[in-house]
Design goal:
alpha+beta; seven-stranded mixed beta sheet; six-stranded mixed beta sheet; 11 helices
């Protein structure tokens, strides 16, 4: 980069893309962040119901999560209350010291806060809460690690657990996507929301990448590219949209080493159910819990108990098991689910919630949402935590490179941005 500033395109503004953009800019790189949605967030997104009773998707994932809702949609509740839901990642934990340093900086900036509530598990057979999380308890730390970090055994990722970091549950303030929003507006980062990338082409004679928008118009040439969006190369993009993925045949012909690893990134679907109640659910002694022995529900979180969230109503977000979601997808396909499908899913998830035997009244708001490809089922990058072609100056990063967690996405972004910065210094 001697004598000039290199231009890099970052595709996708979820937590991985946003961290990449921020770190590159801090190292003197001119970054353009492309996002097909109207705002940043990815799986860190949230939903808000205004007092005027209009439900707007403040952060949509039309391309990064192909099968989510349209760019805007209206919902009306009977109560007319203002509602917020972190309907993607509910929180995150940290075990890596380098990630902890970054999160500590975010905490000092007021972007994140510790969610100081205890969690537990609920056994659907005995209908009792078990494995209560307690501060400074080794068993609870293991439980939290199992629930939220989902450490795999054997060949996949192994992390050194730092108890102080892992015992804390972090959330974005006031909502989860506040982190991505702040990072995508840092100095040196030009964010282009509502501008998806339709094609990437390597210009051999110019030694540059040329990017084309979804409308077919050229949107710039760049010395380097980092993609944090699986749909840049995923066959699933074609299955759902009928269009070739942005990298298309390019990576097969020009990037054969990457192509072998990117051919099929396995993903899992998940449904979430957003519920709002007029009164607190007093029969539930914790603000977050996992389900044992349920084929339908996996997690439940009291969203309104988070720091900075309004407590005018009690709001819960339930996550389905991946097996349940797989069954629904096998029946209705990968396309955006219809309103009738989502209504059916909402009812089934809520009925399972009531079957716990806990006192669960009827909510005044109930809505289901599908995350179609948000959860990677395998890590594809190994110890490097990213994929990269040095000659073409392109890197791939994301939770699918490390682990299906927010921390995994951050680790991958840190590694990919560091490598590309190193490569650009040699130009």
């Amino acid at each position: 980069m001697a004598g000039s500033v290199s231009r890099v395109a970052v595709i996708g503004s979820g937590i991985s893309g946003a961290v990449c953009a921020s770190l590159l800019a801090r190292n003197g790189v001119s970054v353009t962040l492309f996002e097909s949605a109207r705002g940043p967030g990815g799986r860190m997104s949230y939903r808000k119901l205004h007092n005027c009773l209009v439900f707007e998707f403040l952060v949509e994932n039309v391309v990064t999560e192909i099968d989510v809702f349209q760019m805007s949609q209206r919902e009306i509740t009977e109560e007319g209350k203002e509602l917020f839901f972190d309907h993607g990642a509910p929180l995150f934990t940290v075990s890596n010291p380098d990630v902890l340093d970054i999160v500590s900086e975010w905490e000092s900036r007021g972007l994140v806060a510790e969610w100081k509530e205890n969690f537990a598990s609920f056994d659907c057979i005995s209908r009792n809460f078990v494995e209560f999380e307690q501060e400074d308890n080794d068993t609870s730390l293991m439980f939290l690690n199992f629930c939220l970090v989902e450490k795999r055994i054997g060949k996949s990722y192994k992390w050194i657990v730092q108890e102080e970091g892992l015992s804390k549950k972090y959330v974005g303030v006031p909502v989860m996507n506040s982190i991505c929003r702040a990072l995508s507006h840092e100095p040196g980062v030009e964010s282009k929301f509502g501008m998806g990338v339709g094609r990437l082409e390597w210009l051999d004679e110019k030694n540059l990448w040329s990017l084309t928008g979804l409308d077919g118009q050229n949107i710039g040439n760049f010395e380097g590219v980092i993609s944090s969006d699986k749909n840049t190369f995923s066959k699933r993009f074609t299955d759902v949209t009928g269009r070739p993925p942005p990298l298309g045949m390019c990576y097969l012909n020009l990037l054969p080493e990457l192509a072998a690893k990117l051919q099929d990134v396995p993903v899992s679907s998940c449904f979430v159910l957003m519920l709002a109640f007029s009164e607190p659910l007093s029969s539930i002694p914790v603000k977050g819990f996992s389900f044992k022995n349920s084929e339908v529900l996996r997690w439940a979180f009291c969203d309104s108990s988070k720091p900075g969230h309004s407590a005018t109503s009690e709001r819960w977000v339930l996550h389905s098991t991946m097996e349940y979601a797989k069954g629904v997808v096998s029946q209705v396909g990968l396309q955006k689910p219809s309103s009738s499908t989502l209504a059916k899913v909402a009812e089934e998830l809520f009925i399972e919630f009531q079957r716990t035997g806990l006192t669960i009244p009827q909510p005044f708001f109930k809505k289901a949402h599908r995350w179609g490809s948000a959860f990677p089922a395998a890590s594809i990058a190994g110890e490097e935590k990213y994929l990269c072609d040095r000659k073409k100056r392109i890197a791939i990063c994301g939770d699918f490179c490390v682990s299906p967690t927010v921390e995994g996405a951050i680790l991958s972004a840190m590694a990919a941005s560091s490598k590309l910065t190193e490569i650009l210094t040699c130009l």
